[in-house]
Amino acid sequence: MRTRQDHRLERLDDHWLRLPNRWDVPVEICAGPGVPLEPAAVDEALSLLETADTLARLAEATGFDGPEPRITRVVLTPDLHKGAGIPIGTVLETENALLPQAVGNDVNCGMRLEVTSLRADRVRSRLDRLEKRLRHLFFEGGRRVALTPAQREALLREGLPGLLLTGDTPWRGLQPTDADDAVDRAHLPWFPARTAEAFADWIGSAGGASYDSIIGGIGGGNHFVELQYVSEVHDPAAAHAWGLTPGTVVLMAHSGSLSLGHQANGTALDLLRAGWPAGLPRPRNGILPFLPGERTEAARRRYLDAFANAANFALGNRFFLALTMRAGLAAEYGELTSRPLYDAPHNLFWPDGDRTVHRKGATPAGGHAETAGGPHALWGEPVIVPGSMGASSFVLRGHGNPRSLASACHGAGRRVPRGATARGGDAELDAFLREFRIVTPLDHRDPLVARRSDVMAAWRRDLKQEAPWAYKDIGPVVSSLAAGGVATPVAELRPLLTVKG
DNA sequence: ATGTGC
Question: Residues that bind Mn(2+) 1, according to the entry (predicted)?
Fold first, then answer.
């Protein structure tokens, strides 16, 4: 299928497009002819580029005498769609500038993939019983992760490795493994958090160990925890190395930093507004950057600490989500192993000297250079691309393509805006729910449910926003990544059971 | 996307 091309885009070859702009910033999109691109998202990308002017004006107004702050490259992924100010599916490379909004509110939203010792036929044989267990564990008060204030603080400051060193943290008799430790240590190499002051309320909310109302929650929107099985192998050598043999059951968790990332981003915007030079108009696109230097040092440091705290929390939360799923599986099928293959961040930046790569709704796809010395040096970075509910997901291996800023898409991409899914579609949703095994929170319209604080409730309207027809077909999206030299498929995964936040 | 709408 060929979709009509946006007149502002120029096709470079079969799988790359260019967005010409008056700032001469290289803006490239990896998308084949079968991938629809939302015009509103292209509008938003052009509006983002006005930040090039903001950087120049801010530097002048503040007498900034360091090296020129600039946008050096933008990559838009094939799952591009309109976000709040900056498109979801944007990779932004800057020099001498940091843009909190280019990672978005949900700091370190990401994807964890674990390879279990279970086989699909065994899991399939008792899905009814497993479903009941998971509904209880995730939504009906069965989660109950107990952490002391010291443990909460350690999680924020030093991530999961820090938490594991702070007293006993067994949960339902399950302990993290060496593989967890290796994945979690590899995840956050950039800057440890110094202070958790922004989250003092959450840390200090109990005297002793108490059950946590936040950690272990899935979140909403497109977040989920899913059991899948390997249905097809596309790259036998890499699949074998990663344990992705046909019929193997895997666990996928997509979740973010819940309320913590929002608080971190809010802190950044408050600080940026407070420090904005008097007399300089605020930018039309609403995007406020940090420039380096002493003038902004204190504010930047406070933001980076809150950012790292939220990022650490998100990684830890995905670990707890996996642990919850492991607990359900162990209760139903007996002892098992579940080894994390990867935990990939979607919303994050990496300052590296003067250069910063920001990703908002995009996933790293490093090759040999980016993974050198690590466990994935041989095959490249695992790239996890989930399809919409009920559809296949893919695991690919990254090629570190500099054209893509070593980045790939983080999903199939929304086709219908959230707001446009409210009307109709109820019969289709019912049919979908009969066909696929989707474990959802309890119905929020039920007055008995709404009054109970120990259960999760959700609206049907939210579920409709995540219906399969609201998303693009994942096939052309994955083909674009492969043909565009970004990442190549290793294995295809089909859903067995989805726990939907 | 957010412990639950402007």
Answer: 106, 223
